[in-house]
Amino acid sequence: MLAISFAPILVRSSDAPVSVQGMYRLLFTFLVMLPFGGRQLRELHTISRKDWLLLLAAGFFLALHFLLWMASLTYTSIASSTILLALEPVFVMVGAYFLFKDRPGRWAIVGMLTALVGAVGIGSGDIGLSQRAFFGDTLSFLGALAVAVNMLIAKQIMRRVSSFLYSFIVFGVTAACFCVYNVAMGIPMTGYPGREWLVFVLLAIVPTVFGHMIFNWLLKYVKPTTISMTVLAEPVGASILGMLLFREMVTGFQLIGGMFIIAGLVLYMRAEKQTAAATIPVDPLPAAVIE
Fold this sequence. Notes:
Layout: H1 7-13, H2 18-33, H3 49-75, H4 78-84, H5 88-99, H6 106-127, H7 131-157, H8 163-185, H9 194-218, H10 224-230, H11 234-246, H12 252-279, H13 287-290
């Protein structure tokens, strides 16, 4: 959560087109992972055709998420963009219910709805500011939908593919999608100053390696909705950094909405913890200890 809070700050710090930022962010992450693949990369031939299609779809939706969300930072504030991205758990909850039969408890749903109220409050406040800000909010909303689809695909395919191999392939596909987009739109991919390349590298290392890769690994052990709810903490860190670095003061709507999001996060995580405690059997020597 700490790592991904720096993502909007780094995006805003760059003057390069967001599609170029996204391409190098994922390309550099792909290259960083390459030397550590070892045995796992030798398992590429074991992936079925169906899983390859799912991996391609996951990469496409991740690219769509980055393109939409990063573009939103051009039109709206860091606080609004990241807080509206918090709608992701709502989409993940609905999808997980139909795909995986994940049925959240009553208080978990209350927590989600509380967070949703906060996010809607942010959007409604920006409508009154300008059409430009509302357009940026819309891009962030669509970006949240795209990453929710990506997460649901990841949860399904990572039952058969390791988290490292999944991240490696999907990040490569995402970078390729950005490359195709840049070529099609005639966006230059070279000729940027050294400062921009530093931002590209930091985008790869900080929010991607220490953010998205960790979330992908956690999908092996926890529900996708749980991971999505923890991402709700990103707007808090990003908004604070935005105030310190870009003097983007938080509005009343953003402050109240953020408080609702934090309250919803606390409610949800407490409910999930109680549910997990109630379903885990008592075992004097857990299997994890034996292993």
